[in-house]
Each structure stands twice: as structure tokens, then as C-alpha cells.
Amino acid sequence: xxxxxxxxxxxPQAKVDSLEESWIKSAQQDLSAFEKLYDANYEAIFRYAxxxxxxxxxxxxxxAQVFLKAMTNIKKYKFMGLKFxxxxxxxxxxxxxxxxxxxxxxxxxxxxTESLANMAQDIDVPIALGNEELIAAxxxxxxxxxxxxxxxxxxxxxxxxxxxILDMTENNSKVKTHRVIKKLQNKQK
Length: 189
Hints:
With 189 residues, the chain is mostly helical. It is built from nine helices and no strands.
């Protein structure tokens, strides 16, 4: 008889910034206090939305929806070891894709030449292939693969943050990102 036991690993809760926590608690009591959370997170959420679409106006509309939804639901927000910004990014992800779906638009990636060169160097793709070939390879990825690459290489996020935003473990975000990299490397051979 096997006496192996199975245990569940529960990671320690991330330390939530105490100032942010006080802002959240204040906003849960009085919505006018939500302004501090808005000011602290607006630019990052706007960049996230804009990174996925071609229009600053559309990105501003999505960002407004994100904060409206967050403010409307702030009383339901519970501290579960994630940063408040991760909760906002999850809302932003949902709102961005819903906006694009409603407008019958496809998500895009706004890339800079420097970001492509850094990515090519980091994943060991010969730079001689050029940006067009790398962009073509990226365009063949599915939405989740593209989002992993986008967050890691164009938004410079660490795996922990990627995991929080995509609702997966840090290790899972790392594994999935490395699989995408291998896929891109194989396309370049």
C-alpha cells in the first residue's frame, strides 16, 4: 500500500502596499476616495489598452470603462494577495477584447523597432532575419501566445505579474512563455 500524501502548496500572500490598501478601504466607504486609485493606475491601464489597439481614442474609451467598472465594483473587491493593479488589468483585458469584438476589430500589437530587436536578441532569433519576418511569425500566434509575448517583451513585465494578470501561477506563465519562444525559434529555422 502506498502511503504517499498529497499536499497543496499555497503561496504566501503578496504584501499589498499599505497605502494602496488604505486607499481601497477608503474608496469602499466613500467613492470620492477612488480618485487616488484612479490617479495611481490610469496611465498604466491606458498603455495596456493602447498596446492592443491602433487608436488612442479607443484606448481612452476602454480605460474609462475599466475605471467605471472598477469603481462600481470596488465594494466587492477583496484583498486576496494580488495587487489592485492586477485586478484592474484583468478588467482591462476583458473590456479591451469586448470592445474589439463589439467593433469587429482585431487586436493589434503596437511594437517599437527597439522592442523587436531586444526580443530577437533575448530569444536568440538571428537579427539578420529582420523585423518583417519576426512580425510575420508573431502574427501566426494565437491570442494567448501573443499576449504572453506582448507582456513579457513589449511591456517588460515579470512572470509573477503576467501570472497575476492572466490568472495563472508565476511558474505557468513562465512555462507557457518559454513554449511560445520555442515556437517562434522553430519558425525561424
